[in-house]
Amino acid sequence: MSNLTEEQLQSLKNRLTQRADELREVIHEESARSAGEQFRDLAGSVPDEGDQSVADMLIDVNNAVIGSQLAELRDIQSALERINEGSYGICMDCGQDIAYARLAVASTAKRCTLCQTQRERTYANDSRARL
Fold it and tell me: CA–CA distance from 29 to each of 5, 9, 23, 93 (Å)?
């Protein structure tokens, strides 16, 4: 169990829940909007190569934005599960408490500042695709 007070934990849980609700709404709206935008609507009825490239790019950007939002929603759901399990606020690498100040800024944090810094240094040059 972390050193978070019940008040701190409840505040973070409320923030996470609110953000999850916002993301679900935005994802739903974006998905509905993109489903309504047919390729031919973006490119025109007789697309040339330039129109086709722009339409492809717009579709790719929209998909990337939705993917990013889905990843954030998964992180939030994971954090809420950790709250329910009693492991929220405990670093997954070293087992030490994650400071409230860090959680107030990054509510989905899984690692303490020290372990996160080490992880970022270790994987800074990891060039694998993330989609």
Answer: 36, 30, 10, 37
pLDDT tens across 46-80, in order? 567 766 677 667 777 778 888 999 999 999 999 99
Task: For residue 33, give the nearest of 63, 53, 74 by alpha carbon.
Answer: 63
- pTM for the full predicted model: 0.76
Radius of gyration of the chain (CA): 20
Q: How far is CA 130 from CA 4, 71, 127, in A?
A: 33, 11, 9
108 contacts: CB under 8 Å, gap ≥ 6: 16, 72, 75, 76, 78, 79
Place of tokens 């372990």: 115
